[in-house]
Records
---
Amino acid sequence: FFAKPLPEDRVGIQDFVLLDAHNSETAFLDNLKKRFTEDLIYTYIGTLLISVNPYKELDIYTKKQMDLYMGVNFFELPPHIYALADNVYHTMLSETNNNFILISGESGAGKTEASKKILQYYAVSCPSSTLMDTVRDRMLMSNPVLEAFGNAKTMKNDNSSRFGKYMDIQFDCQGDAVGGHILSYLLEKSRVVSLLYIHTI
Ligand SMILES: Nc1ncnc2c1ncn2[C@@H]1O[C@H](COP(=O)(O)OP(=O)(O)OP(=O)(O)O)[C@@H](O)[C@H]1O
C-alpha cells in the first residue's frame, strides 16, 4: 500500500513558519530545493520573502499575475514579490506611515531584478495620472542608464551593480505616486572594479 503523496511532499511548504523541523538547516534547505525544482522561487518566513535566483525567464511576472495579487491578503496566494509589494503599499496607505522594503543577498542573488519587479508592479498597480506616468517612466527608464555607468561584469554576475541604490517613491494620501529619488550609496572599495595594472620594466 502506497499513500498518494501530498502535494507538499513535492513542492515543499510555502511558509517556513509551518515547517515542522523549524530549527533544522537541512530541512530548511531541503524545502527550498524542493520548491526551486518546481520553479517555485519564492518562499515566506512569515512576512519575510526568500527568493532563489532561477537564472531563467519564468512566466510569473505577467500583467495577469500582477492583477491577481492586487489588493489580495498577503497569505491568500502563493508567495510572490508582488504580494510583498502590494502589502507594503496598502500598509503604507492604511497606517499613513513610511514603509520600506529591504532587499539583501550576495552578489548575483537577484536584488536588482527584484527591485525592478517591485517598480514594475507599482507602475501597473498604482492609480495612474500624468504625473504618475512621468514618475514611473523616470524611475524605470533611468535604470538602463544607471546600469550602463554603474554596473560591471564580475565572476559572480554579468551585470553586477558596483554601488547600492536607495530608491524612494513618494505617494500622496490617495496613493498616487507624486515623486521619487534614486540615491547611490555603499560605494565600497570591494564593489569597485578596475583593470589590473601590470608593472613592466
Ligand atoms: N527573478 C529572476 N528571474 C530571472 N532571472 C533573474 C531573476 N533575478 C535575477 N536573475 C538573473 O540573475 C542575474 C543577476 O541578478 P541581479 O543583477 O539582480 O543580482 P544582484 O543581487 O543585484 O547582484 P549584485 O549584488 O552583483 O549587483 C540577472 O542579470 C538575471 O539574469
Note: Residues 53-55, 57-58, 105, 107-113, 157, 159-161 surround adenosine-5'-triphosphate (CB under 6 Å).
---
Amino acid sequence: MPQERLYDALLDALTATFGRHPGFRATHAKGLLVNGTFTATRIAGSISRAAHLQGQTVPVVLRFSNFSGVPATADGDPMASPKGVAVRFALPNGEFTDIVAHSFDGFPVATPEDFLGFLQGIAANVATPPDPQPLQTFLANHPRAQHFLEAPKPAPRSYAGLEYFGVNSLLFINRKGDQLIGRYRIEPLLMQPSLSDAQAAAMHADYLQEEISARLSKGSLKMRLVLQLAAPGDAVEDGSIAWSRQNEELELGVFSLDALEPAETQQLAQQRLAFSPGRLLDGISLSADPMTLARDRLYQRAVLRRQRP
Ligand code: HEM
C-alpha cells in the first residue's frame, strides 16, 4: 500500500473507533499544557551535539494527555490509559524539537502496517453490530499486541507521578561523530503508587488536570529525562519489545514544570501545537525503527484533519 494511503487508513481506523471530534486529536484527545524549562546534564552534551542538550536552560511546553480519542473520556476510565506526554523544546535560534512518549514500555506492534491491522480489528470490534473476528485473528498472530491489551495500565495519582516511554529508538551523535542508540524515558523524581481500579472509577472526570493545577499553584514540579541505551542484541528496530531495565541509562536533564498554560489560551494552544517524535535536531536522528518516520508523516496528516471544521 502506498504510504499516504496507509496513513489515511490509520486515521480512518482511529476515527471509526473513537468518532470524529473536530479540533481534537484523533487519539490523546484530552490534554493539558504546562509551560516550563529544561536543563541538560553534562553527560547529555557528551553523547549528542543537539542544541538543547548542551546545558543552557531552554523553554519547554509539555502536553499531558489521555489515550482515548474521545475528549470527554474521564481521566480514571480504562480507555484514558496509557497516558501521554509530548514535549516541545524551544531553542534560542527559533528552532524546536519534540519528544512524544506514553506511559507503557512498548507498543502493540513494530510497524505502521501492523498497527493498521490492529486498529481495524479494534474498529470492527466496537462497530454496530460488532465483529470480534478480525481482532481475534490479529491477536492470535501478534502476541505482543495481546500483551499490550491485557497488561495492567493503572490510573496514576498525577500526570507527573508516572513514567513515560519514548518507545521508538533514536540515534544520538556527538561532536566527535560517536553514535549511541537509545530510547527516551520521562519520569518523576519520585514514583507515586497508582490508583486501584475502584479508586480510579470513583475519581472526578478531570482529577488529573485538577491535581496538576493544584500542585503548580504551590510551586514548580520536576521530572527527569533519561536515555535508556540499547544493549548488544536489543531490537532497536522494534518498539513493541521493551528493553531490560538493567540496560545502561543516562540522565539527560531535568524538566521544571512551572505553570499551566492560561485558561484563556489553553484549548487554542493545544489545537495549534503539532508535536512529532520525528522533529529532530542535528545530533539526534532516526534509527532503524521505522515508526518514527511514519509517525512524523502521519501526525502531520492528522493535524490537517483535526483542523478541518
Ligand atoms: C503507527 C503508530 C501510531 C499511530 C497511527 C499514532 C497515531 C496518533 C495520532 C493520529 C495522534 C494525534 C496527532 C495530532 O493530531 O497531533 C497521536 C498522538 C499521540 N501519540 Fe501516537 N500513534 C502511533 C504511535 C505512537 C507511539 C509508539 C506512541 C508512544 C510512544 C504514541 C503516543 C502518542 C501521544 C502521547 C500522542 C499525543 C501527542 C500530543 O500531545 O500532541 N503514538 N498518535
Note: The pocket of protoporphyrin IX containing FE is lined by residues 10-11, 14, 25-28, 31, 63, 65, 84, 86, 100-102, 107, 112, 115, 166-168, 239, 274-275, 291, 294-295, 298-299, 302-303, 306 (CB under 6 Å).
